[in-house]
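ENTRY TYPE: paired fold submission
RECORD: A
CONTENT: sequence, then structure tokens
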Amino acid sequence: MSEIVVVGVGPGPWEMLTLEARDILTSSKRVYFRYGTHPVFIRLKELGMEVVAFELLYADPNLTYLKAYELMSRAIVREAQLRGRAVYALPGNPYVFEKTPRFIAELAKPLGIAMRLVPGMSFLEQLYVALRIDPEEGLTILNASRMVERPESYPPNPRYACLIGQVGLPFSAKPTAPATNLAPLAGILNKAYPPHHPATIVRCVGFPSYQLETRNITVAQISLQADFINNLTSLFLPPVT
């Protein structure tokens, strides 16, 4: 039976890979990545392995995010059909802020292709430590893009701590759009929280170190943070007491 293995490669550094993920990646003939800038992609390439990235799809102005994800998913399923096995590596955890594993599962099941998911450390584990927060005390986790696209479906709840991921992504269905979701997100939060309520922006500096940097601000200052955000940025708001 053909098989698709979706591997979570963690938030960045090679050292944060699980042993299971490392064994699968280093023993595979070919590994597909969503992004070619991930340190694990770079490391495997340095080891002489065959690695393929879908990164160029994000640069195509004719493609929406949804269409790019569909193309990736179809390519992975086709690889499994042709070679009997496809290995697809995703940053973080395959089921944390990721869509393609669901698309792949929908395509693979009718074809009788087995699917295996290998968990990895998500960006959330790093944020819990950086922000000194424990989700058991009450935490709402939201996606900034979904909040601005469908504010009625994803409202923040000031009664609980709120952690918002993917701040700074394009405010559009297309990844090539110049405007980010920062301004509309700030508008939503300004309606839900007092202007002087504290907030913390956490960004990952990306390749090669993947270190976290924080900036403490107020809700009223969120819209002014365009100089600090990147595509690896999250926002934390403590509960209103």
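RECORD: B
CONTENT: sequence, then structure tokens
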Amino acid sequence: MPSCLIVSPHFPPSTVAGVHRARHLAKGLPGHGWAPTVIAVSPAHHVESLDPDLRSLVPPWVRVVETGALPAGLTAPLGLKGEIGLRGWFHLRRAIGREIRRQRPDAVLITGSPFYPMLLAGWIRRRFGLPVVLDLQDPWASREGATRRRWTKGWLTHRLAVLLEPRALRHASWVTSVSQRQNAELAERYPWLDPARMSAIPIGGDPDDAANVRAMLAPTERQGPLRFSYVGTALPRAAPLLTALFAGLARLRQDRPDLAARLALRFVGTSNQPGQSADCRVRPLAEAAGVADLVSEHPGRVPFLEALRTLGESHAILMIGSDEAHYTASKIYPGLMSGRPFLSLFHAASSAHATLSRAGGGVALAWSGEQDRERLVGEVAAALARIAADPASLGTADPSVYADFTPSAVAGQFAEVFRRAAR
């Protein structure tokens, strides 16, 4: 059986979102004939909160090699305390060399963020002659980074990204990202990249995760408030969609005050930062719409399993995207797999809206611009009323719609990438 190394500085019990790419691949690749070994920085060196229960989602047969890193306290004065890709760079390099000499794998995958370990691609190819796949889960050099104020840490990070991204990509045997749009932007930025050696592979989700959490939950009470839950970052460009949502909620209260009074909209993890308690991005919009009494916000990012429990304990799921057509939200898959009815609001041309519209099991609404705002407000009010009063009428999400986004399906795509990269 061919083998591969998956270099992912973050891995469970780390709660950083990027752990799930490596976790899904470690679980799914053996079913496609590949034996994976994960190389990650030891949890003892991570500064973010850990979730020991998340490790239970990793099959016991997955081999994980944990490395050291420079102490966080030693690098803190340099502003590198949270940069595990830099703090663990040399340790990861040594571990990769040891594992290549030990098992002579057929391919190496480096997934990020963090992105700095991707600079090891050239060394791996020169020293060992192995194909290296670079998996950019997010843009490294991004348009958002270019807007950072001069001489701030964000600005310096972006300048480094502009300098280092092409150096890493030049040594990649294959490049993957989560969307065709992201690949197109890379190809536009670097004309020497071969589009034929690029693939768009979403993160996806694991139905087993949701099933395991549901098995631990008590039945959802129908007597108290009807909880509509959103879990995840509230993006700056989500503001127009959230404004339409709250305007629809206000319209429902105007038309059906008895039903609206039973609703409780919860927004959890909106800042994407652990421990944040004051950085509310959603409540001010609810206050402006006059519905703040029906909306709660907990900005601090929560561990993955807690996020799944929040979805499982809810009467309905809220999935809110961005006013950008290219925005692709991986969080729609755990939402679809939760077994709960949903109300989604994405750009009409987005792939997320197309997927949710096909799936069923909820109400998928489309944002086309401010010119359609009045129409959308009425649709939001009607959708909230239907989900609250008659959720059974929505049926359940069709599993075939997200079949291509399960760990096995995603791993199958990477197995093909490995095979082609090795040619």
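NOTES ON RECORD B: The chain is about 40% helix and 20% strand. The mean pLDDT is 90.
STATUS: closed
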